[in-house]
Amino acid sequence: MKSERDEVKNGGVAEEEERELKRKRLTERSQPMDELDDDDDQEDAFKGRGKHSRHVEVRRDCPYLDTVNRQVLDFDFERFCSVSLSNLNVYACLVCGKYFQGRSQRSHAYTHSLEAGHHVYINLLTEKVYCLPDSYEINDPSLDDIRHVLNPRFSRAQVEELDRNKQWSRALDGSDYLPGMVGLNNIQKTEFVNVTIQSLMRVTPLRNFFLIPENYQHCKSPLVHRFGELTRKIWHARNFKGQVSPHEFLQAVMKASKKRFRIGQQSDPVEFMSWLLNTLHTDLRTSKDASSIIHQCFQGELEVVREYQGNDNKEVSRMPFLMLGLDLPPPPLFKDVMEKNIIPQVALFDLLKKFDGETVTEVVRPKLARMRYRVTKSPPYLMFHMVRFKKNNFFKEKNPTLVNFPVKDMELRDYIPSLPTAAEGGKVSSKYNLIANIVHDGKPDDGYFRVFVQRKSQELWYEMQDLHVAETLPQMVELSEAYMQIYELQEE
Length: 492
Known about the structure:
Layout: H1 4-9, H2 16-27, H3 31-37, H4 40-45, E1 58-59, E2 90-93, E3 99-101, H5 108-116, E4 120-123, E5 129-131, E6 136-138, H6 144-150, H7 156-161, E7 169-170, E8 176-177, E9 183-184, H8 191-200, H9 204-211, H10 222-234, E10 243-244, H11 247-256, H12 269-284, H13 293-298, E11 300-308, E12 314-321, E13 324-327, E14 345-347, H14 348-351, E15 356-363, E16 369-377, E17 381-387, E18 389-391, E19 396-398, E20 402-404, E21 410-411, H15 412-415, E22 431-441, E23 448-455, E24 460-465, E25 468-472, H16 474-478, E26 482-489
Parallel strand pairs: 1-6, 9-10, 13-17, 14-20
Antiparallel strand pairs: 2-3, 2-4, 4-5, 5-6, 7-8, 11-12, 11-16, 15-16, 17-26, 18-19, 21-22, 22-23, 22-26, 23-24, 24-25
Helix pairs in contact: 8-12, 10-11
């Protein structure tokens, strides 16, 4: 026996008598379909398809508004009914914070209102608030703060002011937090996701793009929309608590990556960053050759010259890149006179010689060749990856070499002289400032990741590791074992 919704989808039934018969049968069916059928919000979506509509009383005065408990509300987790585990037509109880399906007389929310005496519920999709079991809609402006936490909103004017905002916000528990500088819950070995997200939140055009949902409303990818929701929650100034849980985003990551990245398994931030940027670009572009905000921020261009052994011919090609891999020198094999390993240091200047178009790099795969790389186009946001980890057949090794790098005013043309120059009379800036620095501490398998990020409004640096957020000195950023960095191009 098919429901009316299936009939509409497959072409529908022409005769009105058959429709009425279907409606009568539908009211006799058990719970799941009844929960959908009796809900006014679902009826709105199906008006004009032969489905009856039910008038819902709207009231401003509700005697149960004082039972709303904002302390227990948490909209960061997946929106599933706590009883049926369904994600259709889910309501949140504003008294205890639990999720229930439907609001008809046979629904779980209706039953909960009778058993627990909790009467105020919000539809997680439409943001309408209802009183159960009386089934009237509550229209009270005092509930607007809950709607803003459920679905944070930003105007374009507010987005433009974010990097100039120096004001702290206060959570319900009395703790102060900085919008954009909030901690992220480590659900289970998910710090590689947290440091990646915190780094990307410093990329201004990317952040501004995802703060306005209209920019990607054409996209049907759940990953894109979950990333946008997470971005808005991190930068929202009216949160009920001073941290955010990326649970819904992680569920979308697990599904999109086919569990390549999943909760409970530590992964590499560089691999995750590469996968995330490429997946977001693929999902956002409207055609095969179209660009996206990802490529506008991070894509540069390399000229690659290949010379094969025994062959005098050179192969010259150009290829785009989102991230540049920097090879660290091998650590010393022997200990010093104090029986301690010497921790070598290397300047970023020396590592970037790989891309000056003259330094030769030998590769063995797919076959032995001598390679020369030259950066022909530098992007607005330049990402570096220090190759610290190497795997062999037995174990994973970590290179402890410290990289000396500038935090501000890095003149890339001094590092890579082959960068193209501007036409006569024009200026092309090639100075970069560091905005994010992901570091790794500890052993290769048992270590952990943390990130240093810059707050632009006051040019202060913060150290972030999951829920830990603390201001730090710029000098501390340079003393860490850098693993991945993001530099921002200075404006002329």
